[in-house]
């Protein structure tokens, strides 16, 4: 039998992967149109379906790359934030009865999720968040991404990890009480 | 389901998971590039022939032909061409004259005519022409080897 955890992780990884790719593409095209950067597109270059964009000058490439990397990080950050808020406020194991009742009355009780679901989602989003931070750090080291973006990304990822760790700590205390 | 199938399926699912996680990062590194014209040429010839009356330059593939009309029996045309080394390494160029009696050489010292020269990366060397004797209308065909 296949490991349920691995299947769950694969299931949770699909949407973040797609969303990050779309975020990167969107960031690049928006930056290019805002700053009037000239580029050419070659189709079916990456994974046999996705395009590759070529800029005529290094400065254009660096500008577009920075804004698209920032967009990609913000997408990862928002996804992780969503999971952390859900883990903190809408966690089945420690949601306040008042809030739960309110959500039920508004027909929004599907927001409340069990630990199994939340922690698998969080593991995936935090993995993507930290991989994005590592990518930004390497890109800064190669003098492509501005260092300010990498530093800010690291601080945000560290804080999100700390908040999530606090939630895990609370979960452990609850299970000890039980 | 036997053990081997279980292990194989679990392994493949881990590979799929790792691929899903790595895909956006790989995409981010490969999506945008800088396009550039890759110059594979080992030398560039810059013509200054238009500064010289009665001197024309034509080219067929790697063969250059200079056609000129000289005023006196001996005449030199200095710095008619400039050869540039666009590569990142030092190059040694040789002028090979295939037709004509005129002398094509690097530099502009008639007394010290060099048909072979070593050029550092990014630098340029002039090419000059010297004709002694013969008819007033002449031509010389040459190529540049490296």
- The percentage of residues in β strands of chain A lies in 5-15%
Roughly what percent helix of chain A?
over 70%
Indicate the overall shape of chain A: elongated
Q: What is the SS-derived class of chain A?
A: mainly alpha
Shape of chain B: rod-shaped
| Main beta sheet of chain A | 2 strands, antiparallel
Radius of gyration of chain A: 20 Å
Under CATH at level 1, the class of the largest domain in chain B stands as Mainly Beta
CATH fold name of the largest domain in chain B: Jelly Rolls
- Percent of residues of chain B in beta strands? over 45%
Work out the helix count of chain A: 5
Indicate the low-confidence ranges of chain A by residue numbers: none
Task: Write the H/E string of chain A, N to C.
Answer: HEEHHHH
Widest sheet: strand ordering of chain A? 1-2
How confident is the prediction overall: mean pLDDT of chain B?
88
The low-confidence runs of chain B, each spanning 5 or more residues with pLDDT under 50, are none
What is the strand arrangement across the widest sheet of chain B? 3-4-10-6-8
Measured distance between first and last alpha carbons of chain B: 68 Å
Number of domains of chain B: 2
């Amino acid at each position: 039998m296949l490991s349920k955890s691995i299947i769950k992780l694969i299931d949770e990884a699909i949407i973040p992967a797609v969303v990050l790719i779309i975020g990167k593409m969107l960031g690049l095209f928006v930056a290019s149109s805002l700053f009037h950067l000239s580029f050419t597109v070659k189709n079916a270059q990456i994974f046999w379906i996705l395009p590759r964009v070529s800029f005529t000058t290094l400065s254009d490439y660096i500008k577009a790359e920075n804004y698209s990397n920032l967009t990609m990080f913000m997408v990862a950050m928002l996804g992780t934030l969503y999971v952390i808020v859900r883990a903190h406020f809408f966690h089945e194991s420690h949601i306040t009865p008042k809030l739960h009742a309110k959500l039920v009355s508004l027909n929004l009780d599907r927001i409340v999720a069990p630990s199994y679901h939340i922690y698998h989602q969080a593991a995936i989003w935090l993995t993507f968040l930290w991989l994005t931070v590592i990518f930004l750090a390497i890109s800064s080291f190669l003098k492509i991404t501005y260092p300010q973006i990498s530093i800010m990304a690291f601080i945000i990822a560290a804080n999100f990890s700390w908040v999530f760790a606090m939630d895990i700590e609370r979960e452990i205390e609850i299970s000890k009480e039980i | 389901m036997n053990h081997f199938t279980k292990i194989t399926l679990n392994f493949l699912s881990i590979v799929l998971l790792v691929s899903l996680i790595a895909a956006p990062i790989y995409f981010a590194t490969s999506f945008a590039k800088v396009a550039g014209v890759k110059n594979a040429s080992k030398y560039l010839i810059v013509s200054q022939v238009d500064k010289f009356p009665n001197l024309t330059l034509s080219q067929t593939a790697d063969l250059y032909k200079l056609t000129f009309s000289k005023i006196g029996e001996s005449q030199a045309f200095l710095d008619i061409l400039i050869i540039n080394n666009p590569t990142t390494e030092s190059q040694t160029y040789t002028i090979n004259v295939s037709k004509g009696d005129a002398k094509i050489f690097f530099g502009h010292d008639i007394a010290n005519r060099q048909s072979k020269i070593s050029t550092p990366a990014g630098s340029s060397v002039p090419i000059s022409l010297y004709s002694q004797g013969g008819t007033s209308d002449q031509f010389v065909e040459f190529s540049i080897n490296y």
